[in-house]
Amino acid sequence: MDQNLKWVNEQRILRTIEALESNNMNGYLVETREDIINKICELVNEGDTVACGGSMSLFECGVIDHLRSGRYNFLDRYKEGLSKEEIKNVFRESFFADAYFASSNAITEDGHLYNVDGNGNRVAAMLYGPDKVIIIAGVNKIVKNIDEAVNRNRQVSGPANAKRLNKLTPCTKVGYCMDCRTSDRICREFTIISSQGDKDRMHVIFVNEELGY
Questions:
Q1: Strands (E), 17-171
Q2: Residue 16 and residue 77: Cα distance in Å, rounded?
Q3: What 3-state DSSP class applies to 191?
Q4: 192: phi then psi, degrees, rounded to nearest 5
Q5: Any idea where the domains of the chain sit in the sequence?
Q6: Distance from the Cα of residue 200 to its chain's centroid
Q7: Which of 3, 89, 155, 207 is least enclosed by beta carbons within 10 angstroms?
Q8: Which stretch is the leader sequence (predicted)?
């Protein structure tokens, strides 16, 4: 990445971290994907029970591999051969995790987390249950405000995720949200996290590159 553009992105991340901290959430800027893992090791104890929401970012930066390393008791929703009922049980057990990992559809520069779910398990765990929530985000997830967050989901993350999941929705044909009413719709639960009562619960780790959708 061009060093001047990297600097511009870094300033944007730092502004967002400052806003998150003013909303009683923790933010961190790391340089590399390897540094993400190092920060996780600072935040989560070996042997802790951990879980995750659906996220391409977690795969791309190696977090899923790290959670599978044996260091933790990982409630692995992606484990091969799980039945629908077993996956549902993983989702429910995740509420009791010591740490829950996810990304965010968008993070505003004034320190709000905007998320859209199909099943609701990810946003539900982010809102309540796990002792810690650790969000991994590339600079591409930062937007100016909630209006831009909504637009980002309609134009980028919603259609991209529907395409990834092979959903038969209009957005997988045209590349943007059509506010469909199909049975395959994945945009069903919309949440905004504006603040936290427990300062040590929400942790957002930024890396100055693009991750996920």
A1: 26-30, 49-52, 73-74, 99-102, 106-108, 113-117, 132-138, 142-143
A2: 30
A3: strand
A4: -125, 120
A5: 3-143+191-207
A6: 17
A7: 3
A8: none
Local confidence pLDDT in tens for the 213 residues of the chain? 789 999 999 999 999 999 999 999 999 999 998 999 999 999 999 999 999 999 999 999 999 999 999 999 999 999 999 999 999 999 999 999 999 999 999 999 999 999 999 999 999 999 999 999 999 999 999 999 999 999 999 999 999 999 999 999 999 999 999 999 999 999 999 999 999 999 999 999 999 999 999
- Look at residue 198 and give its three-state secondary structure: coil
What distance in Å separates the CA atoms of residue 120 and residue 20, rounded to the nearest whole number?
A: 23
How many other CB atoms are there within 10 angstroms of residue 11's CB atom?
10
Q: Read off the tokens for 115.
A: 């998320």
Nearest to 113 by CA among 91, 159, 145: 145
The two tokens of residue 188 are 């069903």
CATH 3.40.50.10420 holds for 3-143+191-207 = yes
pLDDT in tens, 34-69: 999 999 999 999 999 999 999 999 999 999 999 999
Q: In the structure encoding, which two tokens stand for residue 128, read together?
A: 């309540």
CB half-sphere exposure, 82, CA atoms < 13 A: 14
Please state, in angstroms and rounded to a whole number, the distance separating the CA atoms of residues 149 and 206. Answer: 17
List residues bridging with 127 in a β-sheet: none
| Residues 130/203, Cβ–Cβ less than 8 Å | no
Structure tokens at 87: 């996956």
